[in-house]
Design a protein that fits this description.
Layout: H1 15-25, H2 31-39, H3 53-59, H4 62-69, H5 71-74, H6 78-82, H7 87-99, H8 107-113, E1 119-120, H9 122-132, E2 157-158, E3 170-171, H10 177-195, H11 200-213, H12 225-234, H13 238-243, H14 252-257, H15 268-279, H16 282-287, E4 303-304, E5 316-318, E6 321-325, E7 334-339, E8 346-349, E9 358-361, H17 363-375, H18 380-386, H19 391-404, H20 409-412, H21 416-452, H22 460-466, H23 468-477, H24 479-485
Antiparallel strand pairs: 1-2, 2-3, 4-5, 6-7, 7-8, 8-9
Helix pairs in contact: 3-4, 17-19, 17-21, 18-19, 21-23, 22-23, 23-24
Length: about 500
């Protein structure tokens, strides 16, 4: 078997430089022959990452096998990109690099972040000649959007033929001190991630912890994405925003996918920049332990029943409550609904730090006590005081009692508990009748709104703009009819989001 006599690889040498040097010193006249020998591939180009390394490993001398196996991690920028890949992408990538899998799962990603044109630092080239007698291409000079050498902080040079050491290339413009410091910090983060590759799960979970500790996550677990990007933009020079297309991420569809696992590789540089913004460096981001927890609104219970006529009054009898988020999301607040499992008295609290409550449902026992006190001749004021309510509420119930019970012989023979059930039934029927009246009125109003629009203007969005309150009520209470009379939905290729911080 023909044994390939490979050669030593230089520190931080780019993979393309390794193959180009091998081709230069071999007897091959073309890259096609070199690729056939090294990877059993018929190709006249050098890829951004190796393909079918197992072939080369099987034919190389034993002394070179280890450095060849480590080539994807020591001589490409994959360790940086790997930190943002999921397990499925990693497995496919390994098959491509080592087993000759035909499809590169991160080809588009590599082209986005790695320069297709070879770049070098003139000072690094000079030092390489001085130290080892030969120049080579450094992998960290090949990152797109990075224009300065991370060692000497001078502009990188584009080379048309990187195998030609006499090529002076084309120098880029000089940069300001501010810009140099910006890239210097960014490269510090990139070098750390290259040497300490993580995975997308670790990166994502760390972001959630850090964002939570910094106040960018609501109690409902929603990330304030737009606020985060705006805050970062305020802290960064306009030059850098344009360079990394950060304003692109203010588009609704782009903010929607920010921190979305399936799209985690969409803008790697943005995540690295956010690491520094949030934690001053990628090292601090990954190594520091951030505590993030959110207090459960209104605690974990149990809670008191406040019904003055319940036998469990002021006892912690309520074990489950309903927490409802405020419709004003930026407030990051909830209100809670409490119901006693014994007397069914229901009340809500708007502010967990306040003792103020609002009664939602008084229950049979409370109404029975009101009827009894009224029959005994107590004044409205005294009844209200004993039942811990207002005179207005007492009078509302007394009106129902006077209209439907007193003067009715059959009713007056019933017990207070029985009368309380009758009053509850009357109130429920009134509530249903009122809802029906609202429904009929809103239906007529909606039809008038639809008819007021031109045919080409008849869309759900336009109807809602004319009367949002009416539209929302019908969605909540008469959805089936609403869908029947509204124009059919119109779907766009890109999602439209009414509120960027309320996606599920």
């Amino acid at each position: 078997m023909h044994e390939i006599n490979f050669f030593s690889i230089f520190p931080e040498e780019d993979y393309r430089s390794i193959i180009a040097r091998y081709n230069k010193y071999s007897s091959h006249s073309t890259l096609n022959k070199t690729n056939k020998e090294l990877f059993n591939k018929n190709s006249a180009r050098i890829g951004l990452v190796p393909n079918n390394l197992n072939w080369l490993i099987s034919k190389a001398r034993d002394s070179y096998k280890e450095q060849i196996e480590k080539m994807p991690y020591n001589n490409t920028l994959l360790p940086l990109i790997i930190s943002f890949l999921n397990n499925s992408q990693l497995e496919k990538l390994k098959k491509y690099m080592f087993s000759g899998y035909a499809i590169n799962p991160v080809a588009t990603l590599l082209k986005k972040f790695i320069s297709n044109e070879i770049r070098y630092c003139p000072k690094c080239i000079s030092e390489d000649y001085k130290n080892i007698g030969e120049a080579y291409i450094h992998r960290l000079h090949q990152l797109n959007s990075i224009n300065i050498c991370y060692i000497h902080f001078v502009p990188l040079v584009l080379s048309i033929d990187f195998t030609n050491s006499d090529d002076n290339g084309k120098e880029k413009n000089h940069f300001s001190i501010e810009y140099i410091n910006f890239e210097k910090n960014l490269m510090e983060d990139i070098v750390y991630l290259l040497k300490n590759p993580a995975n997308s799960e670790i990166i994502y979970n760390t972001f959630i912890t850090v964002l939570g500790s910094k106040g960018y996550i609501s109690r409902k677990g929603e990330i304030y994405k737009k606020e985060l990007i705006l805050d970062y933009m305020k802290s960064t020079s306009r030059i850098f925003l344009d360079k990394f297309n950060l304003e692109l991420h203010l588009r609704k569809d782009q903010i929607f996918i920010l921190f979305s696992k399936p799209h985690f590789t969409r803008n790697m540089f943005l995540y690295i920049l956010l690491m520094r913004y949030l934690c001053s460096s990628s090292k601090n981001f990954l190594e520091n332990n951030y505590d993030y927890f959110t207090e459960i609104p209104f605690g974990i219970g149990p809670w008191k029943c406040i019904n003055p006529v319940c036998e469990y009054q002021n006892e912690n009898i309520i074990t489950r409550i309903s927490r409802v988020p405020s419709t004003r999301i930026k407030l990051n607040k909830f209100y809670a609904e409490f119901q006693c499992p014994k007397c069914f008295y229901t009340y809500i609290k708007i502010n967990e730090k306040s003792n103020r409550t609002e009664t939602r449902y008084v229950g049979q026992k409370w109404i029975s006590c009101l009827i009894k006190m009224y029959k005994e001749g107590n004044s409205v004021k005294n009844i209200a005081k004993d039942l811990k309510t207002s005179s207005v509420v007492v009078n509302k119930y007394l009106k129902i009692i006077n209209d439907h019970i007193f003067g009715n012989i059959e009713m007056e023979t019933k017990t207070c508990d029985e009368l309380a059930l009758i009053i509850l039934d009357i109130k429920n029927k009134k509530k249903q009748n009122l809802k029906l009246r609202y429904r009929d009125f809103y239906r007529k109003e909606l039809l008038l709104l639809i008819n007021s629009l031109l045919d080409e203007e008849k869309t759900r969005v336009n109807v809602r703009k004319l009367n949002n309150k009416l539209y929302v009520w019908l969605i909540a209470n008469d959805r089936e009819w609403l869908d029947q009379v509204l124009p059919s939905r119109q779907y766009s290729q890109k999602p439209v989001f009414l509120d960027l911080d309320t996606e599920n």
